[in-house]
């Protein structure tokens, strides 16, 4: 496995030099910013990623104001207590994408976020989870959330601003090239290997998962 500096150099060579590469990197929000992120914003970003999965992202983005209105600003109390009448109305609501299975995730994920209140709240649990065990957070989201497996939860955490890696095609290709995994990681063992590699690169560089993930993606 290459030292992170070598991978950074590869990415810089492909993107106009180190300064140009740095300009393209994003940094995660601070722990304090994430702790202060309201519950409705966590539910909003989670829902957007659920609906974007397997669908045209531009369509979801264009309808998003309608989603916000249809789901009462993603108030988690209202969404968690969605009754059949509200659900049936949403199935006919042209402001959103009328996918019943995904509409149901709003109710389920709102209930999940309500549960997190007893554990410190969404901002503390999701935002404060240690980056050195990011795969543990992904496992939590998959087990307790609704339709938050695969890369859906990874994108949700990134868009919420928390430190994260996304196992995109390019990131996965770099991980394979580095001998971390031999195919797209899906098993617990493979995800543990991915976490270990990212932890090594964090130690070497002092950078966040978010920055490292972007550099890996741009190194190809």
Automatic annotation (TrEMBL):
Query: Top EC class per UniProt?
Result: hydrolase
Question: Which EC number(s) are documented for this chain?
Answer: 3.2.2.20
Q: Name one GO biological process term.
A: base-excision repair
Question: Mind telling me which Pfam families this protein's record contains?
Answer: Adenine_glyco
Recorded GO molecular functions are:
DNA-3-methyladenine glycosylase activity
Which InterPro entries does this entry report, sorted A to Z? Adenine_glyco, DNA-3mA_glycosylase, DNA_glycosylase
Keywords assigned by UniProt? Glycosidase, Hydrolase
Question: What is the name listed in the Swiss-Prot or TrEMBL entry for this protein?
Answer: DNA-3-methyladenine glycosylase I
The organism is Ruegeria pomeroyi
Tell me the lineage of the source organism: Bacteria, Pseudomonadati, Pseudomonadota, Alphaproteobacteria, Rhodobacterales
